[in-house]
Write a structure and sequence with these properties.
Layout: E1 6-10, H1 17-28, E2 31-34, H2 35-48, H3 56-64, E3 68-69, E4 72-73, E5 76-77, E6 80-81, E7 84-85, H4 93-103, H5 106-117, E8 125-129, H6 132-136, E9 142-147, H7 150-163, H8 170-186, E10 199-202, H9 208-221
Parallel strand pairs: 1-8, 1-9, 2-8, 9-10
Antiparallel strand pairs: 3-6, 4-5, 6-7
Length: 228
Amino acid sequence: MVSIPVLTIDGPGGAGKGTISGLIAERLGWHLLDSGALYRLTAQAAVKHGVALDDEAALETLAAGLDIAFPVEQGAARTLLEGEDVTRLIRTEQAGERASRVASLPGVRQRLLARQRDFHKAPGLVADGRDMGTVVFPEAPLKIFLTASAEERARRRFQQLQAAGVNASLSSLLKEIQARDARDTQRSVAPLKPADDAVTLDTTRLSIPEVVDRLIQLLAQKGLADGH
């Protein structure tokens, strides 16, 4: 595994991990793992099949047999669950809250661990999540922990929802983000935290191109990319 480079990008929701990871993977021609989508898909499969979100045994079975695909069309990735396009459905705040609950279950995390590592293929992988550098790819040569203030992450999410024509309350979004942060950092298995050797980057006052350029520079310094 070590011979194939891995860039892990961890951090709380709203820090920009998904957007940044996708842009870097596209620029380098590497594979992309949106690990959070796996938990969202497990939670969505539970809702679809009437499985309670605290039924760990049933959720483990769902996680092990997920029928999922991530086709890319015209530069945009879609997410399919059992052949159904759930790209937007699994990106709601409610879906995120369900995913966080599912991710707190040790048995489900173990089932999905092997599936995440299956994405590690040549020429390289950008792995986006909350425990990519600490649990899934601890040998990664470059680990990034992206963060931003809860207020800024709520503002970004609010703007995304507005642009999509979805009504939302900024104060409610802030409370949800703070609650999810508390749950993710305090869970007993794979809590959200930077790896010991991770580079922490606060994106509160940085633009997306600035963050991408900074990470490409770090990859180049490690000899993993040419800095283009």
